[in-house]
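Inputs:
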Amino acid sequence: MAARGEFSSRLGFLMAAAGSAVGLGNIWGFPTQTAENGGAAFVIVYLALAFLLAYPALMAELTIGRAKRANVVDALGHISEGKVAHYIGASVGLAGVLTASLILSFYAILAGWMMSHMVEPITTMVGATDASSWLLSQGPFRDTLFTILFSVLTMLIIVGGVREGIEKWSTRLMPSLLTILIALILYVLLQPGAVEGLQLYLVPDFSRITDPDLLMNAMGQAFFSLSLGVGTMLIYGSYVSEQENLPRLGASLTLIDTGIAFTAGLLILPAMFVAQHYGTPIYNDAGELAAGPGLIFSVLPSVFDSMGGIGPIVAIAFFLLMTIAALTSSISMLEVPVSFVSEHFGVPRKIATFVAGFIILSFSIVIVFNFEAMFGFVADLATVYFEPLIGLAFCVFAGWLWSRNEAMKALASGHPDGEGAWFVKVWPYYVKFVCPTLIIAMLYPTIMGLF
Ligand code: TRP
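Outputs:
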């Protein structure tokens, strides 16, 4: 078997994993969820859940991945002895592969929207008004074209492998993402109306804090944002060297991910109130704040339009930011099926990439042509149900089915205090009892709501 890939350094892993974690979920999902769920109250619950639940669950994926050095199906299949355990593990792994592919199938469509809006200011500047209006109106042909472009870009990076593909491109793109984000924030905060957005974002409405919807939304957001529950972090963990201090890497990753989500809120919410200042309605008839596609594709562009000559540049920068965020996340989703197909069946990586990539792309196109019926359904199925359930299964595997000695050894490798570290001692119990209880408690109302 060909040697497995490995990230070249701690920084390489952090860039790749942060590239995965930081995506549309951070820049679009988090700020709008915050606005819908009582502002800072949501931020507080989200941060608590990110560190108390998502972080330990992330450690389950990273640790299993690094210890088993395999894709999600083979890693889970070999977590404990015995045929039954093997089949259960492999099935959960397959569910992860399927869910990662489902997420990518709708995510690539969203990313395609970002790309078409990135190109549009250019057609406007050169006076191609027909092209502009085509680029701005959602339709099967525009969406197919841009979904294909985006998916091919994703495949071209994944073909390169761990160092020359994932790591190289994440290391190039993540600093650009941060630079664009900060530049946009500085610009927007100087515009009239921005402060009102900051207030909504940062002043908590504590009456909302025990709302079960808020808790569910915060958990879903935390899982999605850290790319949990499909094996993405497991496969990235499998490319980390034994010398690295894994709990620390995971903590840094959680900090970076929540930090960037929080920072994105400083852009999106003030920008909405700047739009309002310029006369764009930001509340719907029911008094709810714009959050869905309307926010990204009409409210924010209206701010760009009101900026005069610099507007198109700011618009391009914003949609470039979104495209980059989506791209480094999509590569991590595609890596899940690709690593499975290439390792498990011994297929060359190139073939695995294009086979998996084109199957997923075909499914995206089916969604594009049946948008109303399928998009929301696929997105909810994958992220509201499958992701937390599989995330729960990862915790159960790490806590109940894996031998505690082996788990602790795997976690402790590279930690300066080894198995004496408090985190290494506490984590096996935490992931065994606390994580599953929290996930089940929060999933319970959703599951009950089905009946
Ligand atoms: N975390 C990314 C975001 O916030 C999305 C993402 C990438 C993802 N890989 C994933 C979500 C795997 C779930 C599973 O947008």
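Remarks. Residues 20-21, 23-26, 100, 103, 224-225, 227, 230, 232, 329, 332-333, 387 surround tryptophan (CB under 6 Å). The CA atoms of residues 133 and 210 lie 44 Å apart.
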